[in-house]
Amino acid sequence: DAGITQSPRHKVTETGTPVTLRCHQTENHRYMYWYRQDPGHGLRLIHYSYGVKDTDKGEVSDGYSVSRSKTEDFLLTLESATSSQTSVYFCATSSGGGTGGFYEQYFGPGTRLTVT
Amino acid sequence: AQSVSQHNHHVILSEAASLELGCNYSYGGTVNLFWYVQYPGQHLQLLLKYFSGDPLVKGIKGFEAEFIKSKFSFNLRKPSVQWSDTAEYFCAVGSGGYQKVTFGIGTKLQVIP
Q1: Which residues of B touch A41 (CB under 8 A)?
Q2: What is the pLDDT of residues B25-83, one digit of tens each?
């Protein structure tokens, strides 16, 4: 398995508080992603990064921000948590080789976030 | 924008039964196709992938998938399922830049011993 860790693994927080989730990789992969997984919706992309300080929005980015100051770390911040953000959050990485084609994504263990 | 449809959301099979999970995508250009599996309580991991070449792709644990370009389909198959195949299966399509993929909503497979 790729060396991807997420912290915290579980968190309960109150509505309106900011929350930061951390993804750490040891694979030196260029691409990193944050997804949320909800029943009936599968995985939806929140934000992604294609290099240090290079990030962009995914399909469900409202209420979330990200930062990537080092290759190995990708932070997801819920600026003011709402109950609709209760979900399981997965980080993923991909090496994205230079010869084209798609490379598989490696997933972290997930963070279960509950907003009360 | 690309999209992925998985037809069966919940499948229940007995051990040794054959499995076929449907996946259709909508995208007019070159695509890369994946099936991921998520065992209970675990993270997603790759089952198999198709980039080019032989449209019949073999993956881990006896799974295979066939890419049919004319039908925009990438169905997952296994001749004989085991109880340990109980999991959620996600079809995914990659295209465009930044190695982004779009996932289907998943199919939960329950295998009864």
Answers
A1: 105
A2: 987 677 889 999 999 989 899 999 998 889 999 999 999 999 999 999 999 999 999 99
A94 pLDDT above the threshold of 60: yes
DSSP helix/strand/coil, B93:
strand
Residues of A in contact with B99 (CB under 8 A): 31, 50, 94, 96, 102-103, 105
Question: B14-27 burial string, b = 16+ CB within 10 Å, else e?
Answer: eeeeebebebbbeb
Do A76 and A62 contact (CB within 8 A), yes or no? no
Nearest 5°: the CA angle B2, B5, B8 is: 170
Distance CA B9, CA B7 (A): 6
A85 secondary structure, DSSP code: G
**Residue written as token pair 């675990």:** B42
What's the pLDDT score for residue B73? 95
Which residue spans within chain A are E strands per DSSP? Answer: 4-7, 10-13, 19-25, 31-38, 42-51, 54-57, 64-70, 73-78, 87-94, 106-107, 111-115
- Percent helix, strand and coil across chain B, each rounded to 5? 10, 55, 40
Q: Is B67 on the interface with A (CB under 8 A)?
A: no
Q: Which of A50, A59, A90, A104 is the mutation pick for testing B, counting most B CBs within 10 A?
A: A104
Given pLDDT bands bounded at 50, 70 and 90, which one contains residue B18?
very high
Q: Which residues of B touch A56 (CB under 8 A)?
A: 98
